[in-house]
Amino acid sequence: MKPLQPVVISGFEVLPLVEGGKGVSISNGESAGAWAAAGAVGTFSATNADTYDSEGRPIFQDYLGKNRRERFEELIAYAIHGGIVQAQRAHEISDGRGPIHMNILWEAGGTERVMHGILEGARGLVHGVTCGAGMPYKVAEIAAHYGVYYYPIVSSARAFRALWKRAYHKYAEWLGGVVYEDPWLAGGHNGLSNVEDPEAPQDPHPRVVELRATMREFGLDATPVFMAGGVWYLREWEHWLDNPDIGPLAFQIGTRAILTRESPVSEAWKQRLLSLKKGDIFLNRFSPTGFYSSAVNNSFIKELRGRSERQVAFTREPLGEHTEALSVGARGRLFYLTAADKVRAEGWIAEGYVTPMQTPDSTLIFVTPERAEQIRADQSGCMGCLSACRFSNWAQNEIGSTGKLADPRSYCIQKTLQDVAHGGDTDSNLMFSGHNGYRFADDPFYGNGFVPTVGELVERMASGD
Fold first, then answer.
1. Closest Cα partner for 2 from 171, 229, 241, 292?
2. pLDDT greater than 80 at residue 209
3. What is the mean pLDDT of residues 425-453?
4. Three-state SS sequence of the chain
5. Domain 7-277+440-462: which CATH number of 3.40.50.720, 3.20.20.70, 1.10.10.10, 3.40.50.300
6. Strand 311-313, strand 363-367: pairing
7. Which of 138, 229, 281, 390 is deepest in the core (most CB within 10 A)?
């Protein structure tokens, strides 16, 4: 393979390898510091980052507020404090030898306030801000205010054009790079548009060539593109190196970065990664953000799929083909279904899924009483971790609501990610993964369950493998 040429990222000359930032403590100061110390780019998550007690154990984020607005303020305070702590840890571990970036989700709750709080409280320790999951127009203004580079995450040239035209052209000197995140292969939340088929992945090469052409229109010839999603062996991407159609290039490594000794995830999570098979990773749309997301197809995902499969449309009065009354609950509420759907509903009820729950789409799903109770408890315990949540109907607006019915087909993302990030069961929680996660089992580097240090992984990847 061609030797990797160094690139300048956030003012440092480094290998073109960037740690992907994974939310809720999956990328932290320890992992980020190790990546920077290895001559690459470290990234910690600034979304609900951990703080620690005197013995170095993560402090459980306990929400005491009586309502969502009070818990929302607690959430922001936790995020700012945790982000500062992680920036400090990353700086100490890296000893200033490489750039430290923080990753934040634009559609997370209170993102602007969290960014200001961390960048103010950790001045000089954070060199770049990576931001996606939405259209982060204001990230440029905030980053520039603190003299920090910004790295928007996009999945198309069209998205970058919109960001540039509306805001980024005013802060061009602080645009450190553009992250192209493949919407079919990347882990976590994905930027599939309404016109793109989740079942028909596209070759990223022409999409990145189009992104570079758009950047050149704006005089950004020397600004690197980070290829994110689907990157495993760099030798598979050799034709991208020194390619004039693509220009300056770095690779953002998300899934492989999880399986290192410095990675904070549990041993059970690491062992699960080593056992994944092709087809075990599922692109779904259950997330309360409304985005597609890529996750391991475990019991958590299967239960969500079951909720949506046990679903029928209803009317509150006889209308059209909805002529069959279904009486539910102690008060005998009537819902009118088609004849075929009533038969299906009665079958689910006979199986124990006796509790119907309304969705915002005038449908009913059928769940067990225990699941219904858990869903309602999770909804009522909402702490506003998203700017707008379809599961709880929270929104960070004046009324504190999306104005829509809460959607029981989704889930509390804060609850499950906090649990799995801190040692919870990897089968009954959401477990994000890029679609190449199954390659751990086939890659000889990980033979006999070998888990490398970050330094060993960076060296291995720089060799092409």
1. 241
2. yes
3. 94
4. CCCCCCEEECCEEECCEEECCCCCCCCCHHHHHHHHHCCCEEEEECCCCCCECCCCCECCCCCCCCCHHHHHHHHHHHHHHHHHHHHHHHHHHHCCCCCEEEEEECCECCHHHHHHHHHHHCCCCCCEEEEECCCCCCHHHHHHHCCCEEEEEECCHHHHHHHHHHCHHHHHHHECCEEEECCCCCCEEECCCCCCCCCCCCCHHHHHHHHHHHHHHCCCCCCCEEEECCCCCHHHHHHHCCCCCCCCEEEEECHHHHCCCCCCCCHHHHHHHHCCCCCCEEEECCCCCCCEEEEECCHHHHHHHHHHHCEEECECCCECCECEEEEECCCCEEEEECHHHHHHHHHHHHCCCCEEEECCCCEEEEECHHHHHHHHHHHHCCCCCECECCCCCCECCCCCCCCCCCCCCCCCHHHHHHHHHCCCCCCCCCCECCCCHHHHHCCHHHHHHCCCCHHHHHHHHHCCC
5. 3.20.20.70
6. antiparallel
7. 229
pLDDT of residue 131: 92
454-462 helix and 29-37 helix, angle to the nearest 10 degrees: 50
- Tens digit of pLDDT for each residue in 368-401? 999 999 999 999 999 999 999 999 999 999 999 9
Look-up of token digits 């993302």: 413
Q: Which of 150, 76, 174, 90 minimizes the C-alpha distance to 125?
A: 90
* Token duo for residue 60: 């459980």
Question: Is residue 465 within 8 Å of 7, Cβ to Cβ?
Answer: no
pLDDT digits (tens, 9 = 90+) for 132-189: 887 888 999 999 999 999 999 999 999 999 999 999 999 999 999 999 999 999 988 8
Whether the predicted pLDDT of 5 surpasses 80: yes
Which CA distances in Å does 380 have to 78, 238, 400, 428?
20, 51, 13, 21
Rounded percentage of the chain residues whose pLDDT exceeds 90 = 85
The per-residue pLDDT for 321 is: 94
pTM over cut 0.90? yes
Domain spans of the chain, in order of start: 7-277+440-462, 299-421
